[in-house]
Every structure is written in C-alpha cells, then in structure tokens.
Amino acid sequence: MMFVLAIVAQAQQISYVEETKNWYYVYDDAGKKIGGLSRGSIGELKGWGSDFFVAKYYSYYRIYDAKGKVLKAMNVSDVGKIVGVSGKTITSRKGSWIYTWNKEGKKIRATSAQSGFGQSKMD
C-alpha cells in the first residue's frame, strides 16, 4: 500500500508595508520583517493585499509576492488607474469601467462605473 503525503505551502501573509525614504519593508501578520525592496527598483507602492503587493514602475504595474518576487507585470494603458488593493484582488478604473483583477493579473470582473455595481460584463 502506498501512502501519499501532500504538503501545502501557504503563502506568507502581509500585514503591513512600511515606506521609508528609500525602501519598502514588508511585514507578516506576526510583525516579522519578511523582506525589503528599494524604492528605485520597484517604483511607487499602490497597495497590498493579503499575500501580494502592487507597485507602479514607469508604465507598468507589477504584482509582487510577499518576498518581492514579480508575479505579473501589466501595462498601465491596459489596466487604467489602480483605485484599490485588498484581500486577494486589485481594483482599477479605466474610462467608465471598474475592473477587478486577481493577484496573477487576470481580469475577473468588469463593471460599468456609471451604472454602479449592478451591471457587469466579462471580457
């Protein structure tokens, strides 16, 4: 008889991202520093979710994991303006549309900003 042991590695949870003059420091839910990245290497922090953060670097938004590895780069002209990052999603606005993205950069919802959240379309 063969036994299979499955080990699921959980992503580190982000509790806080500290901004200093030259660095961003990422902390877990126990207050332990996970890592640090220079502002010059990642650009402007736009927000963080439970296990990722987003920064704007020139004409791209980059999605990073808690340790600072780039998960996805998305062109600003495709995404629009990021208006929120929370939990496991990113919210952006482009023209009259509100878009919701997952941390892998996949668009998961599009909603008309003028009609509210009752009307949506999927691309």
Describe, in plain words, how this protein is organized in 3D.
With 123 residues, the protein is mainly β. It has helices spanning 39-42, 76-79, and strands at 14-19, 23-28, 33-38, 44-48, 52-57, 60-65, 70-75, 81-86, 89-94, 97-102, 107-112, 120-121. The protein has one domain (14-121). The strands form 3 sheets. The protein has a 5-stranded antiparallel β-sheet with strand order 8-9-10-11-12. The protein has a 4-stranded antiparallel β-sheet with strand order 4-5-6-7. A 3-stranded antiparallel β-sheet has the order 1-2-3. A hairpin with a 4-residue loop joins β10 and β11. The N and C termini lie far apart (48 Å). The model is unreliable at 1-9 (pLDDT under 50).
List the helices and strands and how they pair.
Layout: E1 14-19, E2 23-28, E3 33-38, H1 39-42, E4 44-48, E5 52-57, E6 60-65, E7 70-75, H2 76-79, E8 81-86, E9 89-94, E10 97-102, E11 107-112, E12 120-121
Antiparallel strand pairs: 1-2, 2-3, 4-5, 5-6, 6-7, 8-9, 9-10, 10-11, 11-12
